């Protein structure tokens, strides 16, 4: 099973600042990687698939990058609605999620 | 618009059974794979089960294999998860998700399953 590791576990950022979230795979997943956002009490929402393709309706401030084992989700200028938990998920070999990064207000 | 709605959750004793259902609307159900994904209280996400769009392929997480069965009914635009021999670590919110490629592009609101004596 491919293990997904996300870092940091918690990221404290001020509104308007950039947030950079990392996700590593225990072996190469090519670009078979998705990112999700989850707010308290809500279901997750797809942000990115194919490592860098934004899902329908996702603002351009969300940018995914990377391939192989190293991936990054960058939120260029944090808005109040962006404070949430973010999960990466690989779909190269079955389907596994990372443990999540909580983005909180600094 | 795409909508998914789960039902069938609740409190069940260890060793018991429960059947979750998810009804879909707003898209051509038979064109999509479907999945169940769960989230234990305060924890991360875990993919539980997957069924292909043509119902020829199913897959399960190792920790539910042999206990859970996924099925779909395209006529009723629904997907089900039969859960047997339930254990305490099956306690979670269970999400139904439309699966495009192998990522979940739309999710239901989730349904809570609690396994406790």
How would you describe what is shown here?
- The complex is a heterodimer of chains A (106) and B (117).
- With 106 residues, chain A is mainly β.
- Helices cover 0% and strands 50% of the residues of chain A.
- Chain A has strands spanning 4-7, 10-13, 19-25, 33-38, 45-49, 53-54, 62-67, 70-75, 85-90, 96-97, 101-105.
- In chain A, the strands form 2 sheets. In chain A, strands 2, 4, 5, 6, 9, 10 and 11 form a 7-stranded mixed sheet that branches. A 4-stranded antiparallel sheet of chain A has the order 1-3-8-7, with no helix packed on it.
- In chain A, a hairpin with a 6-residue loop joins β4 (33-38) and β5.
- The termini of chain A are far apart.
- Chain B is mainly beta and 117 residues long.
- Chain B is built from no helices and 11 strands.
- In chain B, strands 2, 4, 5, 6, 9, 10 and 11 form a 7-stranded mixed sheet that branches. Chain B has a 4-stranded antiparallel sheet with strand order 1-3-8-7, with no helix packed on it.
- Chain A binds chain B through residues 1, 32, 34, 36, 42-46, 49, 55, 87, 89, 91, 94-100, and chain B through 35, 44-47, 50, 59, 62, 95, 100-110.
